[in-house]
């Protein structure tokens, strides 16, 4: 998980945007098109190389970009789950980000806040509680996929999602009205919320030439990384907006993994209303797009 967060931060800082207002001659629904792609190698072998994509966009109402403050549902980073013992299923639940002032805790925590919750939070113990279809717990994958040991804030309205006798409650907090909030540190089942990102990149590779077939290379499965990230808000007001997003993806793995293989990228971009558009690049080799 640390690798993912570091990567997102880098991509956020590396995303350069140029934009200009134009007359409202296009739809409020976001559209994107491919501009170009570059590969820059680092002269220092200890530094990462960069794969840089340039995406042209048009958006009629200009709601492009997500700042760090956008962390409440539906832009929460991780989705957790509740046990639905009636249906024998697990139900997704989002979070809101809360500021916390307490010794030994992070300055902000995601909080479960839902009235009349249907069941307990799903943990690594849920497989033994009638939910055997859940992924098996693996300490090697902890924090990368399926399960993560983490702190979570539970609002007074949602206190029934935990049982203080089985969940690891590490503290309680009170607001100005005296309402009690639980802080837990437990191994929770999660999935990544794709609406946390406003740009996603998927990699496809071929060893049979530019005609393929192409198969997906999953950075998450292989290295517990992702090139999904965020670019910041592009305009303070509303109205038609168009421009070019420059999105840099750093990695020391591009050349060792892909070498002389043919590559294609799927690029998905979203606006704040979660309208989306996607493109797939033409096949390319890293050597053919090298710019330094």
Care to describe what's here?
The radius of gyration is 22 Å and the shape is globular. 26% of the residues are buried. Helix content is 8%, strand content 38%. The strands form 3 sheets. Strands 4, 5, 6, 7, 8, 9 and 10 form a 7-stranded mixed beta sheet that branches. A 4-stranded antiparallel beta sheet has the order 1-13-3-2, covered by helices on one side. The protein has a 4-stranded antiparallel beta sheet with strand order 12-11-14-15, with no helix packed on it. It folds into 2 domains: 2-67 and 195-289, Sandwich (Immunoglobulin-like), CATH 2.60.40; 78-192, no CATH class. The model is unreliable at 1-22 (pLDDT under 50). It has helices at 2-14, 219-223, 254-258, and strands at 16-20, 31-40, 49-59, 78-84, 89-93, 96-99, 108-112, 147-154, 169-174, 180-192, 199-206, 215-217, 241-251, 262-270, 276-280. The longest helix has 13 residues, at 2-14. It has 292 residues and is mainly β. The protein contains 3 helices and 15 strands.
Question: Topology of this structure?
Answer:
Elements: H1 2-14, E1 16-20, E2 31-40, E3 49-59, E4 78-84, E5 89-93, E6 96-99, E7 108-112, E8 147-154, E9 169-174, E10 180-192, E11 199-206, E12 215-217, H2 219-223, E13 241-251, H3 254-258, E14 262-270, E15 276-280
């Amino acid at each position: 998980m640390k690798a993912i967060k570091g990567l997102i931060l880098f991509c956020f800082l590396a995303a350069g945007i140029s934009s200009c207002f134009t007359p409202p001659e296009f739809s409020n629904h976001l559209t994107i098109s491919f501009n170009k792609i570059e590969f820059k190698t680092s002269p220092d072998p200890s530094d990462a190389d960069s794969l840089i994509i340039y995406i042209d966009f048009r958006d009629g109402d200009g709601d492009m970009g997500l700042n760090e403050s956008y962390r409440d549902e539906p832009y929460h980073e991780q989705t957790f789950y509740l046990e639905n013992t009636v249906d024998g299923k697990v139900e997704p639940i989002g979070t809101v980000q809360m500021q916390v002032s307490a010794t030994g805790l992070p300055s902000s925590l995601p909080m479960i806040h839902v009235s009349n919750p249907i069941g307990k939070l799903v943990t690594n113990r849920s497989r033994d509680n009638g939910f055997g279809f859940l992924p098996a717990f693996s300490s090697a994958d902890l924090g990368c996929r399926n399960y993560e040991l983490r702190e979570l804030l539970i609002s007074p309205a949602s206190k029934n999602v935990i049982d203080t006798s089985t969940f690891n409650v590490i503290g309680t907090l009170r607001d100005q009205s005296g309402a009690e909030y639980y802080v837990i540190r437990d191994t929770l089942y999660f999935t990544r919320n794709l609406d946390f990102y406003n740009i996603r990149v998927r990699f496809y590779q071929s060893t049979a030439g530019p005609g393929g077939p192409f198969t997906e290379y999953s950075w998450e499965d292989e290295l517990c990384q992702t090139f999904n990230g965020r670019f910041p808000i592009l305009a303070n007001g509303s109205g038609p907006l168009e421009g070019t997003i420059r999105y840099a993806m750093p990695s020391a793995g591009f050349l060792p993994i892909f070498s002389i293989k043919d590559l294609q990228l799927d690029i998905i971009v979203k606006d704040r209303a979660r309208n989306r558009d996607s493109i797939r690049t033409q096949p390319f080799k890293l050597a053919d797009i090298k710019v330094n």
